[in-house]
Amino acid sequence: MERLADLVDLYEYRVEDLLQGRTPKGGKRALLELRSLLIQSRLPAPLAKRFRQADARFRALREAKAPEAPPPELPPLLEETPQEAPEEKPQDLRSLALKVWRLLALREVQAKAKEFLSGRREELRLIHAFLQNYQTYRETEGFRRDFNLSRFTPSHPIPSLSDTLLDLEDPKVAGALLQEYLETALHLPKDLPLPPEETRAYLRRFLNRLLEWDGAFGLPPKRDLLALRRALEEAKRLGASAQEVARLEERLKKEAQEERRRELLLEEERRRFRVAMEKVLALLNLLPTPQGETPWPEVPAPGEVREHLATLPLRAGRVQLGPLTLTLSQAEGVWHLGLAGEDHPLEETLVLPWEDLEVWAVREGDLLHLRLEARSAPRLYELLSEGRVLARLLSPEKAYAHLRLLRALSARLKGEFQPEAFGPALAEKYRQAPEEALLDFARKGLELTLRRLGPADPLPFLQEVGRALGLEKEAEALAEALREYLGRRPPTRETLGGEVHLLSLTPEPQALKVGNSVLSLRLREDAAYVGQAGEVPRRLKDLLLYPLPEGTLVLAREGRRVAYLVVGNP
């Protein structure tokens, strides 16, 4: 940290020397080398700001001293050259979307891998057994016609926790295993003439067949008690000695006890792995629709550049993506993507960190898709998803109908529901509460209610309390909102139902234009404030709902990153 501060100081001194007309110590070459070093360094925010300010002065000086006929620079990437524009192919856009989906799924897979590493790792062991059995069965004759798996006989057991051939304690191994599982499920309709919607049902049948197999758990084979009983009966019939009969009876008793222990252990193993199976099947929600519940990532048409998304023909030039200027260049047949003065080889997928952002570059043939994501986007998107539900709960329509329904649902799940306790009189208390306190109250109520609800469907309970309160339509709308909130995990830009905007907090005020409203966003020390002219600014902690005529502005913050979207009035 101190060394970086010294380097930034040195850069400022050398730039100041240039501005004063003096040759900096070490000459211009030393200054350029120092500049390149600082560009590649991960500077803390205060040092990064000082460097950008000094570098802006250096670039302004360099441009002012540029010759009248400067060498040609890279042309803008979107310069009109119709003859070079590649023909749009739907399959290319689909391939780009699939590669973006893989990057998005990778984030969630890494988080799930950490979760599955705890305990006895049943989920990882079950996935490993599935992949082995599926790959073996795929090579057998009749595989493509056996939709019901009537001919399938498992051949690979679930590995034990102490299996030395596996390294399931390694997060990288666990993550790779989950990725292979999702890829196998994704390509299932290609292996079988199976509708994509049937992917989950087929995998459920496959896993059930595996768990029904006694040999799946590595337990000793079933004991032949019938043979022992026959031997005992034969010994009695032939008049064997009392000692021989007693020996056979004792052996039969011990074998029966061992078989009972084995059955109990088998039942317990099946129970635990059936719980794991549901978690394994829940991972299929990450698949793109219609196989899973994740919408396909948005990929604009070729030549279209949006705030944080772009799809472009692959040719040398510059492109502006949000606050960044990227360059495309080709050297010795290899394409490179330039960011902050450094070129990176452009392969099929490329993720470049820049401060608290990530630049995603995905290539398919002569097309390049670029998108700007926050490095903390999963958390920001979770907050925005929560904010969409809270915007409905805090709507004052019909005397805060949705908030009253949520409280009534929580009471019903606890078994203490009395309709008169959740009537319109509660609305007056909500109106008098400070906005920040009401938001905290709604967030805690939502968390408590969902914890009590568990995996159950909220619709039947909400229909019951909705009829009691005379709010049937509102109850159905709230049930749909809760279903969507619970079913879209993890949320993505596409599932949030609105255009997501990302920005970095700075000490200088930033204007947010939402419809006809203009708000100011300012960072003061570690606190962020949002407000309009002539009103007291409201503090943005991690989540803030700001009512506007156009709808409710939902703002989410993590560190210096802010994401926001507008939710229409319910």
3D architecture notes:
The protein is an alpha+beta fold and 570 residues long. The protein has five domains: 1-64, no CATH class; 119-297, no CATH class; 304-374; 383-490, no CATH class; 501-568. It contains 16 helices and 17 strands. The chain has helices at 2-19, 27-40, 45-64, 90-116, 122-138, 171-186, 188-191, 199-212, 225-237, 242-282, 377-393, 397-414, 426-432, 435-453, 458-469, 472-487; strands spanning 304-305, 309-313, 317-321, 324-331, 334-339, 342-345, 349-354, 357-364, 367-374, 501-504, 510-514, 517-524, 527-531, 538-540, 543-548, 551-558, 561-567. The strands form four sheets. The chain has a five-stranded antiparallel β-sheet with strand order 1-2-9-8-7, covered by helices on one side. The longest helix has 41 residues, at 242-282.
**Uncertain regions: pLDDT < 50 for 5+ in a row?**
66-75, 77-86
Whole-number average pLDDT? 80
Class by alpha and beta content: alpha+beta
Count the DSSP helices. Answer: 16
The total count of strands amounts to: 17
Strand content: 15-25%
Helical content class? 40-55%
What radius of gyration results from the CA coordinates? 32 Å
Largest β-sheet summary? 5 strands, antiparallel
Query: Ends: how far apart?
Result: 50 Å
Strand order of the largest sheet: 1-2-9-8-7
How does the overall form come out from the CA principal axes?
globular
Total tally of structural domains: 5
Coiled coil: 238-269
Region (Disordered): 64-90
Keywords: Coiled coil
